[in-house]
Amino acid sequence: MKGLSLPVITDPPVDHREVEAWLQTLGGPVWLMLEGEDDRRCRVVTTLLHGNEPSGTLALHRWLVERPRPRTRLAVLLANVRGALSHPAFTHRHTPDDRDLNRCFQPPFAGPAGELARSIIQDLESWAPECVIDLHNTSGNGPAFAVATHRHPVVEALTGRFCEQLIVTDLRLGSLMELPLTVPRLAGCPVFTLECGGALQPAARDVADGLYRLLAECPDLTALPSAPGLEVLVHPLRVELRPGASVAYDRSPRPDVDVTLWARIDEHNRGVTSPAAPLGWLGHHGLACLQARDGDGREHVGELFCVRKGRLHARRPLRIFMATTNSEIARSDCLFYAVPLA
């Protein structure tokens, strides 16, 4: 393990304590390395890049009790341990004095989060893994889905076993899944994000648990057959507040904000959003308080939405993902992602 940037715990012992107590013993970001039958090969799972997305960690803690022996080495990263343990536990995306780690996987790697991202990249380069899967929870309740920067047969075979949609995005935000585009030694490596579902949904932990087991038990990922029924959606649009705009969530319009989104907007994370369904209410600035840019920075908000009697509606059927009811995340990150359907 010479040359690695982060601590590595090999074959971590079984720990029956509560997960928070277990994380306290780790002391910070750490790799847990499960030695496999074939130690010449390595597969990687990253978890807890966001401290309020615990399903990957909870499933790992439960699975380690079984003392698994994978077919290959399996390296699992527990990244933002400090953010996860900030009181109350598993509620902080990151600590107030730091940046969103999953926006730091590109230069200049500034601050503690940037330095951590650079260390993770160095470790991944050292291992030349067969795959890298970044486990997350969705910001609101909803089904599991996957996100990648391009189509790859291994990505599609894996994601099709845990979700019904794979989103292929051209948006570049500095996330971990973009590394094959920027790190030559990771070019060609199947890397994707698996959004397991809402942090409080028991099914989300089951998705993460299933992924660990599949990666541990499958001898050859390239031989996995394609999963039938996987829907591949391309070029999502990132719907955000414009700078200075305000948002709230309620069951009726709030006169003191620019955008009042429906209190259960995360219900639109399932199925297709019809133009007939109101998404919320807009103030006197109307659509001017929103933006929806593609990967080239082009604006599409007027193509996606319209205003009817002060209500926000889709102009055409949409697939909506990552709709949150957390106003802090809505302001600092985005309201949701949308893919227009023909």
UniProtKB/TrEMBL annotation:
The entry's keywords: Hydrolase, Metal-binding, Zinc
Database matches in InterPro entries: AstE_AspA_cat (IPR055438)
Name the domain of life: Bacteria
A Pfam family this protein belongs to? AstE_AspA_cat
Q: Which GO terms describe its molecular function?
A: hydrolase activity, acting on ester bonds; metal ion binding
Q: Which cofactor does it need?
A: Zn(2+)
Sequence ranges assigned to domain Succinylglutamate desuccinylase/Aspartoacylase catalytic in this UniProt record:
49-150
The protein's name: Succinylglutamate desuccinylase/Aspartoacylase catalytic domain-containing protein
Q: What is the lineage of its organism?
A: Bacteria, Pseudomonadati, Pseudomonadota, Gammaproteobacteria, Oceanospirillales
